[in-house]
Design brief:
The chain has 144 residues and is an alpha+beta fold. The chain contains four helices and three strands, in the order E-E-H-H-E-H-H. It has helices at residues 26-44, 52-72, 84-103, 110-136; strands at 4-10, 16-24, 78-83. Strands 1-2-3 form a three-stranded antiparallel beta sheet.
Amino acid sequence: MIVHHVHLRPTLDGSRVVDVTMDLTPEQLRAGAHAVREVKADRYRVASIEHVDDVLAMRELTSLADELDALALGDGIARLTLAVAGVGRLRAALEEFAESRSDGPLREGDVEALPHVYPMIDGVADAHAAVVRAALDDSVELRH
């Protein structure tokens, strides 16, 4: 289980910003960073990047892995805050990593990461579902 908190805040134009904060251990952060890096490497290792969307997707994965690595440098539980799309990217990367390693060969770092990635998938999926529900729920009215 990953402890998470959904945050809703109004913007100046009256729209809402929705994000989620997850409390992760250093081991989870390192495993998540490894999984994201490996997924990025698998996707873009031999593919020619011809579209701007591919460049942006690769940059977003790189940024996410760097953020997880930076937070893992601390000693205790760290708080990772992501927007709806960011937690969706993390969820997809964790799932893709676990699926690709279930049948395929393991690489350096996979053995250490997998025991943390498997339980993270459900926790991040729960956080993702909660933040998506909050983003789509118009019944909550925010005051400035």
